[in-house]
Amino acid sequence: MVFETTPLYALPVAAIYLVLWFRVSSVRGANNISFGDGGNAVLLQRIRQHGNCAEWTTFVLILMMLAEGMGTPAAWLHVSGALLLIGRIAHPFGLKPDTAGHPLRYVGNGTNLLASLNAMVCIAIHILGL
């Protein structure tokens, strides 16, 4: 099985993941903090931005690979992939320490939830033979 659609989204999301990792590492290096956040609010924010990306990206891409492997039409995979990508772009800008209800945070989490649900429905359709 050759995956053709999921990698189109895995690549840009991986690039976002690496940018977020670099942002964590740069604050760690500048403040000589080896692990944890050392009480540094900026580092804590960047750790959570990176962590949220790792959590959602892994989950959605696994679901997309399963759906693609089961024969889900590319159009449905593009729906999940586009939602994932939008969410991963928006979320870091909305994850602010002083604003839990930032609109971009809702966009990020909402699109990733929809991406997951779409892929889950695609998998369920194949399992149930619909």
Which parts are unreliable, with pLDDT below 50 for 5 consecutive residues or more?
none
The chain-level mean pLDDT equals 95
* Integer count of domains: 1
Provide the CATH superfamily. Answer: Membrane associated eicosanoid/glutathione metabolism-like domain
Q: Largest sheet, if any?
A: none
Work out the oligomeric state of the chains in this entry: single chain
Helix content, binned percent: over 70%
**What characteristic shape results from the CA principal axes?**
elongated
Overall number of strands: 0
CATH fold name: Four Helix Bundle (Hemerythrin (Met), subunit A)
Q: What structural category do the secondary elements indicate?
A: mainly alpha
Question: Count of DSSP helices?
Answer: 4
Q: Could you give the order of the helices and strands?
A: HHHH
Explain this structure.
It is built from four helices and no strands. The mean pLDDT is 95. It has one domain: Four Helix Bundle (Hemerythrin (Met), subunit A) (Up-down Bundle), CATH 1.20.120. Helix 1 runs antiparallel to helix 2 and helix 3 packs antiparallel against helix 4.
Short description:
The chain has helices spanning 6-31, 41-69, 74-94, 103-128. With 130 residues, the protein is mainly α.
List the defining traits of the structure above.
Four Helix Bundle (Hemerythrin (Met), subunit A), single chain, mainly alpha, 4 helices, 130 residues, 78% helix
